[in-house]
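Lecture 7 notes: from sequence to structure.
We start with the chain below.
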Amino acid sequence: MRLSKRTAALIATGLSGAMVLSACGGGDDSGSGGGGGGEGGGTFSIALYSDPENPLVPGNTTESEGAQVVRSLWTGLVEYAADGSVEYTGVAESIDSEDNTTWTVTLKDGWTFHDGTPVTARSFVDAWNYTAYSPNAQGGSYFFSNIQGYDELQAPTDDAGTITGDPVAQEMSGLQVVDDQTFTVTLASPFAQFPVTVGYSAFYPLPESFFEDPDGFGAQPVGNGPLQATEEFVQGQGFTVTRYDDYAGEQPAQAESVEFRVYTDINTAYTDVQAGNLDVAPDLPPDAITSVEAEFGDRYLEAPSSGFTYLGYPTYDERFADPRVRQALSMAIDRQAISDAIFAGSNEPADSFIAPVVDGYRDGACTYCVLDVERANQLLDEAGFDRSQPVELWFNAGAGHDAWVEAVGNQLRENVGIEYSLRGDLDFAQYLPLLDERGVTGPFRLGWSMDYPSPQNYLEPLYSAAALPPAGSNTTFYTNPEFDALIQQGNSAASNEEAIGFYQQAEDLLLEDMPSIPMFFDLEQAVHSEAVSDVVIDVFGDIDAAAVTIN
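Predicted structure tokens for the same chain:
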């Protein structure tokens, strides 16, 4: 059934005063028990629409294609269900605190890495310190910024951002190993949502072998998840992973092996599923949307999504430094018309920086997301915007973005008299580093799926000063101390209601400054061949590879 609105509230239970995550709660009673491999067999294939941006190291995997693989090879302290809710089926026996500042993490017995070594408290503490240490340039570093001592792991820089020395420490003072099964985390300030965040891949453990060869590890990583890498990932091709028979989790892999296959064009992947040459395609080309349900029947999947598509502004570019320009271009776009023409109405026009799948979303929050051609032209005139120069519109190649980005350009031409040029010649793995390096010269397409179920995750990782590259994903390079302060107040709040209030105040600043153009709230769509069953695409846009069975 086609979904026009996503309404699940995912963090309603996430902000009590003292949170305890126990292994007794949650889980799927219909699944196989832990402590062994699945009973199925065979192999199946999943499409990746680019090479991962970086080697397959959890703390440096912050994009969708790498995340699909990493989440199949690892299991975190907690896990997330298909709807994004927290499940207590991971490595943590409990995560508890009396003050939301100092947290005690107790691990379950019996977890091992794919090389047979045990998963211990040290496996998490060492991994988190490595990711946070700025000379290691890990893209997930930002996620540890609220742990006491994080600042001491950041190299000093001058006003231009040039590194001027070494960090004063290599380990965060807020992390302490108590014994093999226990460690403590002391935060710089209270954060009641901390246990909700630690299912994200940046918080995964690393084996001792990683630290012996960090550079080589990412080609054939060693995780603790239901699937293991028994060969190296080949750029442009992918690799095949196999079932880990000693997996300690509650959902062992059902198939014997899974092939992650790299495609450079989403259309090719789709036609391969049609021909039976590919088993799972976790996205569709736009021109297939009107016919896919009739062709695939119950092998076509739709699910609510946390995905959010936007056009980011290079706020460092003088042309886009004035908020009035950013507001105007957003108001010159008819999102519904583009959705109807390109996506058969399946993509919902975005009216907020926060997706509807989490508490904190407000219907119609973005007044500059409503088409208003007269006001758009007035704002451009007030800002003195030079309309004689075309605007470059950037997007990554091969993922089906060409048509809708071109439609945006046509509306800018028609509504505000600005010509445009399309810059869509880079694949995702090339495109992302360019964004981090301030290499784009106009609005750029990006999408964001939540890392963990909280409205905070749509705000702080994308727009805070702490999340500026390379530590995080703030590729607009927007900074606002008032925004950062409100986010911190929300993080420190003692209740869900209080936290959301601060996050919405922070969003109000974004809704006025418009560092990006909210475009669409996505719908997860996938197709699969007749050879497989039990295919699930989750709210993060990932296929649960372990759950897929071979017919």
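Points to note: Residues 304-523 form a domain with the Dipeptide-binding Protein; domain 3 fold (CATH 3.10.105.10). The longest helix spans residues 496-513.
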